[in-house]
Amino acid sequence: MCLKEVYSLRITKSDNDIKEYLKQFPTQEQSNAIKKILKYGIDKLQQEFKDEQYIKGLEQKINTFQSEQSEQMKMLFDILQSGSLEIKENSNSTDNQNNNTEISDSLKKSMQESISIFGG
């Protein structure tokens, strides 16, 4: 694509805000002022685009995190409601079974209290 060496820009009667802004510059500096405004606008548009892309990425990560957290909370609720919280034991002694039952009961109670904090 071939670029022109010189571009012209028309500021019409309806462009009062632009005309008012350019009046603060001497006539010979108005062209440079317009160039600076265009460069500034391009930089800002590019930065806004990058920011939007970054925000979209963050939103996707947040949604993924929330989804995973919801699934884990549902699993915890299902475990607590079904009462299938079990602790595997390596020994068959009665003391270990009683101890594991106490641990299981206290763990279950602790989990229920933790979940109730989240509105469960």
Write the layout of secondary structure elements.
Layout: H1 16-22, H2 30-82, H3 94-117
Helix pairs in contact: 2-3
What does this structure look like?
- It is rod-shaped and about 90 Å long.
- The relative contact order is 0.05.
- The chain has a domain at 25-83 and 94-117.
- With 120 residues, it is mainly α.
- The protein is built from three helices and no strands.
- The mean pLDDT is 82.
* Overall radius of gyration: 34 Å
User: Helix content range of the residues, please?
Assistant: over 70%
Identify the overall geometry.
Answer: rod-shaped
Q: In total, how many beta strands?
A: 0
Structural class by SSE content: mainly alpha
What is the mean predicted local confidence, pLDDT? 82
Q: Main beta sheet, described?
A: none
Q: What is the CA–CA distance across the termini?
A: 63 Å
The poorly predicted ranges are: none
Order of helix and strand elements from N to C terminus: HHH
Beta-strand residue fraction = under 5%
Figure out the total of helices: 3
Region (Disordered): 87-108
Biased composition (Low complexity): 90-101
Features:
single chain, 120 residues, mainly alpha, 3 helices, 70% helix
Question: What is the compact description of this entry?
Answer:
The protein is built from three helices and no strands. With 120 residues, the chain is mostly helical.
